[in-house]
Specification:
CATH topology of one domain in chain A: GMP Synthetase, Chain A, domain 3
Mean pLDDT of chain B: 87
Largest sheet of chain A: 3 strands, mixed
Number of strands of chain A: 3
CATH class of one domain in chain A: Alpha Beta
Strand content of chain B: 35-45%
GO biological process, one term (chain B): iron-sulfur cluster assembly
Strand order of the largest sheet of chain B: 1-28-27-26
Mean pLDDT of chain A: 79
Function (chain B): Essential component of the cytosolic iron-sulfur (Fe/S) protein assembly machinery. Required for the maturation of extramitochondrial Fe/S proteins.
CATH superfamily of one domain in chain A: Fe-S cluster assembly (FSCA)
Low-confidence stretches of chain A: 24-66
Radius of gyration of chain B: 22 Å
InterPro entries (chain B): CIAO1/Cia1 (IPR028608), WD40/YVTN_repeat-like_dom_sf (IPR015943), WD40_PAC1 (IPR020472), WD40_repeat_dom_sf (IPR036322), WD40_rpt (IPR001680)
Helix content of chain B: under 10%
Protein name (chain B): Probable cytosolic iron-sulfur protein assembly protein 1
CATH architecture of chain B: 7 Propeller
Organism (chain B): Aspergillus avenaceus
Oligomer: heterodimer
Radius of gyration of chain A: 17 Å
Distance between the termini of chain B: 18 Å
CATH superfamily of chain B: YVTN repeat-like/Quinoprotein amine dehydrogenase
Number of domains of chain B: 1
Structural class of chain A: alpha+beta
Number of strands of chain B: 28
């Protein structure tokens, strides 16, 4: 990483001001997770760190008929990505307002096929400064986090929010390129950076 | 009279999975040029070879690549032996060899004519030893980053490889029994990852598709390989290109009356232009491209015999134009398109998990006068239209489909000799075989 920070004095939001779910959910379980590189470790970490772990405490709940998948909403997506750390600050993407609840949406991927379970999750990223070269890494971190946490019926659409970055199109094209993302997941150096960012996710 | 609606008239029916599947993402499945086999590339760093007769795994090629195997291609015109090129995210290309003998253990009902006379077939191979039979021949080292596609020239002499490093390498197989390959050319005109390379069906002309949204064509002129055309039109990464078969014709079932003269005119124009290209893109479109005929090139460089020719055209620059944008049927990026060399049908697949099959039909359209003020000339002109004949949603459940290809049908339920199957390859490691019922 560069020794000089690109944004040494970012605006940080008060944790109390960040959006949270008003009513407690019965479970934060997200169903069967993907086969990503770090899926097993993330799963383990999540099992211990969740505020509501009913389904984990009773190991048999799955066979008890708990077959309905918990609906996944924008707040849940926010909870997944807001705790990712910025690559150059020990501060969460939520606190830096790089990700925010109004910039997250979930919609049917194939609106013309009502029966299709496919859903597209759109996360718009607001980099802390317009020329931040780490925007791609942050975007990749968000995409990796979602791919490893959400069931495979979700399609990720992670983009830079319009007008917030000088090379947004370039970054967006990279983040949308499945093959490049897959190759990045096999790149040890890059994945070490991403793993560090995801360390703070619970 | 003329069917131009997108009302599906055919059905994509499931035949079988190739089992057992990979447990990780599979990228591409390549049908063998002569044997009833396919090779499937997987993120688990291996290539699985399956039987298209029994839909079972025959062997797994492993140990050669350090990262995902992204692509592979069978070398054509090899006698008694199968030669496979593999391209990996580890930036290398592997060449693998195996004596043909699968159909011994397969008890295939089909006898492959040339095979019975070749020495490779006389070896009796136990199923248990099959995995040992793939011999790693050579590693082609040259690319700086992930290899995305490999393709053998129609004669099998040249291997084209491309990578994220924006380059295309051409390697000549010296066929010296020592597995030596020589670098013939490195082309670096693309301004982004080169996603796909595909050779013309009979000429030594290479097409490439790229992250820079262009398709480029490459030919050799006086010992120098160079770009002869740069096709712009797609508004996003071009993921895949495929060529039309040399003798392809549109379907004439939709025309009534005497169309013989017009059809002959279409065929004549088609011979002048040569095989067309099809491409698919992140922009959710499938497009057909046609070369503008040159006066100097008016005679066909191939006699329709299907025998590879290395006759070079006169002059280098080629003008390619967009002939058609196919009916837009995909909601997400389209990763692969396959143009059947037997039936002329097109199939496309992508991130939306949908398989779409298109057919080109011959129709006669009134000649439109370009000058809006003058009356329309009603004399007909040869014209074709692409119609969607089948759509299948969720072909691999919720998973994205990375590749589609046509292959000769060889299972026991095959009805006609030239019947074809579609093979699709998906993110969950599954590979499925489909029949098209008309």
């Amino acid at each position: 990483m560069a020794s000089e920070m690109q944004n040494s004095n970012p605006t940080i939001l008060n944790a109390a001001d960040l959006p949270t779910r008003l009513r407690p959910t019965s479970s934060n379980k997200l169903g069967l997770f993907g086969k990503g590189l770090f899926a097993p470790t993330l799963l383990a970490a999540e099992g211990t760190g969740l505020p509501f772990t009913d389904s984990y405490s009773s190991a048999d709940s799955d066979s008890d008929g708990d077959l309905l998948e918990e609906p996944i909403d924008e707040q849940e997506i926010y909870d997944l990505v807001s705790t990712i750390s910025d690559p150059e600050h020990p501060i969460s993407l939520g606190a830096l307002a790089v990700v925010s609840l109004p910039d997250i949406s979930i919609r049917p991927t194939l609106p013309n096929v009502p029966a299709s379970p496919l859903r597209t999750v759109t996360v718009l990223i607001t980099p802390t400064i317009t020329h931040c070269s780490l925007a791609t890494v942050i975007g990749l971190g968000v995409r990796v986090r979602l791919e490893q946490s959400l069931p495979p019926r979700f399609r990720m659409d992670v983009r830079i929010k319009e007008g917030t970055h000088s090379t947004a199109n370039e970054v967006n094209k990279q983040l949308a390129d499945k093959e490049r993302v897959a190759a990045a997941l096999e790149n040890g150096t890059l994945m070490a950076v991403i793993a560090k960012m995801l360390e703070t996710c619970q | 009279m003329i069917m131009t609606t997108a009302k599906p008239t055919a059905q994509i029916t499931f035949l079988s999975d190739l089992t057992p599947p990979s447990f990780e993402r599979t990228w591409l499945t390549a049908p063998h040029p002569t044997l009833p086999l396919v090779a499937t590339c997987s993120s688990d760093k291996t290539v699985r070879v399956y039987s298209l007769t029994k839909f079972e795994l025959l062997s797994t090629i492993s140990g050669g690549h350090k990262r995902s195997v992204r692509t592979c291609a069978w070398k054509p015109y090899v006698q008694g032996e199968s030669v496979l090129a593999t391209g990996s995210f580890d930036a290398t290309v592997g060449i693998w060899r195996r004596w043909d003998g699968y159909n011994r253990t397969e008890e295939s009902t089909e006898s492959w004519e040339w095979n019975s006379e070749t020495p490779g077939n006389n070896r009796l191979i136990n199923q248990e030893e099959d995995d040992e039979e793939w011999r790693f021949a050579v590693l082609l080292d040259g690319h700086d980053s992930e290899v995305k596609s490999v393709s053998w020239s129609p004669s099998g002499m040249l291997l084209a490889t491309c990578a994220r490093d924006k380059s295309i390498w051409l390697w000549e197989d010296l066929n010296d029994g020592d597995n030596n390959f020589e670098t013939v050319a490195v082309m670096q005109e693309h301004e982004g990852d080169v996603k796909c390379v595909a050779w013309h069906p009979v000429e030594e002309c290479l097409a490439s598709a790229s992250y820079d949204d262009t398709i480029r064509l490459w030919r050799e002129e006086i010992d120098d390989w160079g770009q002869v055309s740069c096709i712009r039109g797609h508004a996003g990464t071009v993921w895949y290109v495929d060529w039309e078969g040399v003798a392809n014709e549109p379907s004439t079932t939709a025309v009534t009356g005497d169309y013989t003269a017009l059809f002959a005119e279409w065929k004549n124009q088609h011979v002048l232009s040569g095989p067309r290209l099809v491409s698919c893109s992140d922009d959710r479109t499938v497009r057909i491209w046609r070369r503008q005929p040159k006066e100097q090139q008016s005679q066909s460089v191939f006699g329709g015999t299907g025998i590879p020719s290395i006759i070079r055209p006169i002059g280098t620059d080629e003008a390619w134009e967009e002939e058609k944008v196919l009916p837009q049927m995909h909601t997400l990026p389209i990763y692969a398109v396959a143009w059947s060399k037997r039936t002329g049908l097109l199939a496309s697949v992508g991130a939306d998990g949908r398989i779409v099959v298109y057919e080109e039909i011959f129709i006669t359209a009134p000649r439109q006068n370009l000058d809006a003020g003058s009356p329309v000339d009603m004399s007909p002109l040869p014209y074709t239209e692409w119609v969607v004949i089948a759509v299948l949603d969720g072909a691999h459940g919720i998973y994205e489909i990375n590749h589609v290809t046509w292959a000769k049908r060889t299972d026991r339920d095959r009805k006609e000799k030239e019947e074809e199957v579609l093979i699709t390859t998906a993110d969950d490691g599954s590979v499925k075989v489909w029949a098209i019922a008309r």
